[in-house]
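Is KG4 placement plausible here? Inputs below.
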Amino acid sequence: MSGRRAGDAPLVLGIETSCDETGVGLVRGGVLLADTLASSVDEHARYGGVIPEIAARAHLEAMVPTVDRALSQAGLRHRDVDAVAVTAGPGLAGALLVGVAAAKAYALALGVPLHGVHHLAAHVAVDTLEHGPLPGPSIALLVSGGHSSLLLVPDLARGEVNSLGATVDDAAGEAYDKVARLLGMPFPGGPPIDRAARDGSPTIPFPRAKAADGTFDFSFSGLKTAVARWVEARGRAGEPVPVADVAASFQEAVVDVLTAKSVAACRAHGVDTLVVGGGVAANSRLRALAEARCEAAGITLRVPRPGLCTDNGAMVAALGSLQVEAGVPPSPLDIPASSTLPF
Ligand code: KG4
Ligand code: ZN
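Reply from A.M.:
I modeled the complex. Tokens:
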């Protein structure tokens, strides 16, 4: 925060609507003042995945009340806001549109600049709220229901973020959700698998796709199919499914590849800081294995608390705040919402 006190810095309102959470955050000078959330996750649960139209409608209903709650949580008023930041993409097109339209309306009505930000860069930026400025360059592993990405981050505020690899099929969280469904667990599947795995042993040798292919890409759909075949075979043989062991073995296959590739990316780029974010970063085994492997490799691991790992408005406000402080020019008021926004 370049020597200034947080009290002098601009107040940034952040709006996140890329998936099923309407998130609003207020950040001033790297300090989180409010973080409010309205989630439509319960409305999607019976479909086993997020339905874009339901998410967009829920954002529309939740937007103004969620902004108002954030302001009242921080004891501030609309006119205290100095800049508005919003996720411009990537994400669900209709969901993004609601957030971008709302952000434009707030920016225009309040006469303040608008900053369209990248969703994945915001996932990285949220860590600065807890652990301070990010040393550049850093490597980020972002794993959620919509993405599994390894990024090289030379300068977050200036938008210098390079993709090193991504999933070629299912995202890590999506694989958790699908495997949970086949084990009869509720959506979202990450938390129940995480819990079940604690009582099991990772003894079933599920495949580690792309583990040693030299790229930083991931693939999880083969693993999901392998789990499905294994469970079916037990059923055909009339034997009970050892749910805890299946959960632990599936989870070990996922986190083994995620952590091995993250450490390899740090080594390949001579980087000694790894940030892990996204909903799957809440996973207890991923955290433990990442800690062990980073320690062995001399890498500093930074993982935000679980509430900041999942989609939220604080992350958008955090990145907006970094941009405003770095003097990054605002976005034009006709900035589009882009479901496939590149870096
Ligand atoms: O970041 P997020 O809230 O939303 C997006 O998808 O962008 O991530 C949600 C994903 C879901 O797939 C959920 O199953 C997964 O994060 N997740 C977890 C855990 N908690 C949430 N996966 C593994 N272990 C967890 N403890
Ligand atoms: Zn996300």
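Short version: The chain has a mean pLDDT of 95.
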